[in-house]
Amino acid sequence: MTTEELQALNVDKSVDARGTACPGPLLAAKKAIGEIKSGQIMEVLSADEGTKRDIPKWAAKQGHEYLGTVEESGYFKIYMKKS
Amino acid sequence: MAKKLTIGLGSGCIDKLTSVGVILSGAAADDMEVDVFVLLNAAGAFLQNKKVDFSCSGNQTAEEFQKSLDALSSPGWIEFFEMAKEMTSVKVYMCSLAGKVVGGEKKEDFIDLVDDICGIGEYITSIQEADVNLFI
Question: Catalytic residue at A22?
């Protein structure tokens, strides 16, 4: 998806993990995905560079659909759809 | 079925304890089933009323290491273990010989993270059943 499409998504759950280092954002994502329904969209905000590769890979392994990442200033937003 | 990870923890140094804690978090995120076996030199870190010197992390003292983690708002190793246990099946087994070496005979002699005391047979069985084995 393009950055514009990602930014236009209706997000069902937003997880702000910018205050934590690895593995904080991954754990926050894991906890939060349990709180949404199949087909819903979740975004994870992180400032930890390791997360940028971790969360898309984790989402794929768990069977969720990774939609893309949007860079912001000093952090980024990772989007996924729950399977 | 969940993938199984077996970790042999043979060091009570804070960097190794923290490494295992972080690995447990990753394993929990992947819904792995984990067995941790606390072996000889690691046992002291799991004692109730422990008097252990964790300062074997190489270039930092245990206090400096913990301070660096705190500055990143990172949990300490015990908290990592606790979080992983809340999220997936993590069993921590104290090797009975290791326990005795540091003066602990029963489960109650150790902190709550320890699920049971075990012998080497259980560790070997866990290794045989695991998809991934780590010795740290």
Answer: yes
